[in-house]
Design goal:
The protein has 130 residues and is α+β, with helices and mostly antiparallel strands. It has one domain: Aspartate Aminotransferase, domain 1 (Alpha-Beta Complex), CATH 3.90.1150.10. The chain contains five helices and six strands; from the N terminus they run E-H-H-E-H-E-H-E-H-E-E. The strands form two sheets. The protein has a three-stranded antiparallel β-sheet with strand order 1-3-2. The longest helix is centred in the C-terminal third of the chain and has 15 residues. The radius of gyration is 15 Å and the shape is globular.
Length: 130
């Protein structure tokens, strides 16, 4: 699985273009995989490209991201072998269900810092994700 190298002191970044190639570019594959990972395992992660980049002020479109990364946030005092094994298991579980993961779309977003309080919903699903 492609990982951004070098890894950080408390983070591992996964390349979502490889992880979920079936999700179209505008459907926030990083957010979709972060949500699915949390639903399946409770593990925290965050999308750090398209959503975080924000919109082009002239066009209103999402800024194109060269990479679609998800940062796995590992608790500072959680560096036990058992926790690392669980994180690997959780990522593999989500990786094993790529066709079941749908894209995300923005439902509501503030004018600034949208990655903190934006609201989303799954594409082709009827429920919203907070």
């Amino acid at each position: 699985m492609p990982v951004l190298w070098p890894t950080g002191g408390h983070a591992v970044c996964l390349d979502m273009k490889w992880f979920l190639p079936h999700i179209p570019r505008g459907e926030l594959s990083g957010m979709a995989s972060s949500a699915q990972l949390h639903l399946e395992s409770g593990e925290r992660s965050v999308e750090i490209r398209t959503l975080l980049n924000g919109r082009d002020l002239r066009t209103g479109k999402n800024g194109p991201a060269k990479l679609e990364l998800v940062r796995l946030t590992i608790p500072r005092r959680g560096y036990t072998r058992i926790h690392m094994d669980y994180v690997v298991w959780a990522v593999k579980k989500v990786r094993g269900m790529p066709d079941g993961i749908k894209g995300f779309m923005l439902v509501d977003e503030p004018p600034v810092l949208r990655h903190f309080t934006a609201k989303f919903k799954w594409v082709d699903r009827s429920y919203e994700v907070p």
